[in-house]
Design a protein that fits this description.
The protein has about 140 residues and is α/β, with parallel strands linked by helices. The chain has a 5-stranded parallel β-sheet. Strand 2, helix 3 and strand 3 form a beta-alpha-beta unit. The longest helix is centred in the first third of the chain and has 14 residues. The radius of gyration is 17 Å and the shape is globular. The protein starts with 12 loop residues before the first helix and ends in a 20-residue tail after the last helix. The C terminus is likely disordered.
């Protein structure tokens, strides 16, 4: 008996390998970001692309507030061209992270999305920090 799962044949293993490795070039998860932020010099800058109000109500500690509509070359002038950015927003129901990543890539920066956003962060059992946003240019990556 064929189920809806097997009705369309699975991809060849080599094709699956290529596809899944490619996905990891574009996204990372909350756990890996959490572990990366615990290192003395994270090799990425975590960017909260939500509104400043949302950031102040609760954000990932160590993240800079850079609402996606404010992502400009001028706003990022303090960052080296090789800086890796990781964007996040509210969660899987929000495309702000993708829009922020798109804006950063259009400016020539390397970028990944933190899948799950704030929802995923909380689902992992991690806490949010409450407080005012520090200007993005004031926080530097240890890259």
């Amino acid at each position: 008996m064929t189920t809806a799962v097997s009705e369309i044949p699975a991809a060849d293993p080599a094709e699956t390998l290529e596809r899944l490795q490619s996905r990891l070039r574009f996204e990372t998860d909350c756990w890996d970001v959490h572990e990366g932020l615990r290192s003395p010099n994270p090799d990425f800058v975590l960017v909260d692309v939500r509104s400043r109000d949302a950031y102040e109500r609760g954000h990932v500690a160590g993240a800079v507030s850079l609402p996606r509509r404010t992502i400009t070359r001028e706003a990022l002038r303090a960052y080296a061209a090789e800086t890796l950015f990781v964007t996040y927003c509210d969660g899987p129901h929000c495309n702000g992270s993708t829009r922020g990543a798109l804006a950063l890539a259009a400016l020539g920066f390397r970028v990944k999305e933190m899948i799950g956003g704030v929802t995923g962060w909380l689902d992992e059992g991690f806490e949010l920090e409450v407080g005012a946003a520090e200007p993005a240019a004031a926080v530097r990556c240890g890259c």
